[in-house]
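Section 3.1: Structural characterization of target chains.
Under the original work plan, the team committed to producing a structural model for every single-chain target entering the pipeline before any wet-lab resources were allocated. The record below documents one such target. The sequence was received from the expression subgroup and is listed exactly as submitted; it comprises 219 residues.
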Amino acid sequence: MVVLKRSEKAEKIAAMLEELYPETPVPLDHENTFQLLIAVLMSAQTTDLKVNQVTPALFSKAPTAKEMAKLDVETILEDIRQVGLAPTKAKNILKLSQILVEKYDGEVPEGFEPLEALPGVGHKTAGVVMAQAFGVPAFPIDTHIHRLAARWGLSNGKNVEKTEKDLKAVFPKELWNKLHLQIIFFGREYCPARNHDLSQCPICSWAATKKRIKEEARR
């Protein structure tokens, strides 16, 4: 068995993902940057499918930050009740919208620092908005990416910060925004968290480290 260097492995993975997923539509339905921000915020501990099921009702009432800021928490909560941590998210959505109106005339600011200062917006959420709305190179790390980077030996799986740093080091910057979606799509289609036969996976079958294969076999 030929052991590839991390850079060679990353190059081969990127080529395979580009062949599998040449188009990478953002999986969260939205019509503007504000709606993308709200949808990503809601996606924490909730599937994109569930988010897409609840946002139409909410966005029909409040398609912009200025409209959202006029709602009350109870109205927002009623529309998003089915997503995880809904009470907290409803409060954050209202407060976030009020801040956008007060500080940014209702617009979503372009920049990690101002985005991460908003209620309920962490580094991953800010990264998705920066990448998909503003086209700024970012590598948002979700659970799929964190898991697959470890399986493929591209990071040690210690934490998401380390995974982000490792992937940025091994993949060309111009690929980051598309790759993060391609890896998510691949994880959903081919790489479940549990009961995954690495030997039958298009990428894990050759990219998984011996250590990771042993760990998966013990589960």
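The mean pLDDT is 93.
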